[in-house]
Structure formats: C-alpha cells, structure tokens
Amino acid sequence: MKILNAFEIQKNFLDDRPVMKDQNKDMTALLAMLSREVEELFEEPHGMSPEKYMEQELADVAILAFSALQLLTGDADLAIREKQARNSLRYEAWMFDGRMSYDEAKNLAKNNFGARENAEFYADY
Ligand SMILES: [Mg+2]
Prior knowledge:
Elements: H1 6-15, H2 18-23, H3 27-40, H4 50-73, H5 76-90, H6 102-112, H7 115-121
Helix pairs in contact: 3-4
Bound molecules: magnesium ion (MG).
Magnesium ion (MG) binds near residues 37, 40, 57 and 60.
C-alpha cells in the first residue's frame, strides 16, 4: 500500500467533501480562514498542552496556506519546490556558515538578490 504524503491526504480529504472543496475555490475566504488560524496561534491552548496546541494550529495554518497556494497555482508542491530553489540561490549556504551574524547574512542576501535576479529566475525559457 502506498503511503500518502500530506499533500495527497489533503487532496483526498477535499475530494470526499465537495462543499468544503468548493469553499476552497474562494481565495478571499481561504485567506480569511488562514488569517484566523494565525490568530489562533496566540490563544490559550483549550485544554491541550501548549506544545500540542501549537502543533495543531500550525498544521491548520500549513493546510490553509497549501490550499491557497494550490488554488493560485494548481500545483502547490511544485510552487513550494520552486520557491525553495529560489531561496537556495538567494540565501547561499556560505553566507550562513557562521562567519557572519544572521542579520549580516540576511542583509547581504537581500542586497545581492534583487529584482533583476528575480526576473531572471522566473523568466520563461
Ligand atoms: Mg485551528
């Protein structure tokens, strides 16, 4: 039996719940739900341990962010992998190897990777 990843489980979850799947076609509604889930991160843990509560609410945030990304792109997994590739180019490993502080490295990355590099990275070839 194939073990499903989180993206596949979410797809199956929505395929079994067409009303919820339909609601997830409204970007404004999705972003409003995402915002509410972020707010829940700062609430009291409703009888759970603080760690379990944070785990549950961060998972809600991730699921809704994934749903919004899926709606926008049609392939959230690909969009995340593309962003990770871009981040690898922008935040080069040598910058964060301990020779600079985090803030210095972050500023260097910000200054080195500007609009021109973004345009190149996302250009259609
Ligand atoms: Mg929640």
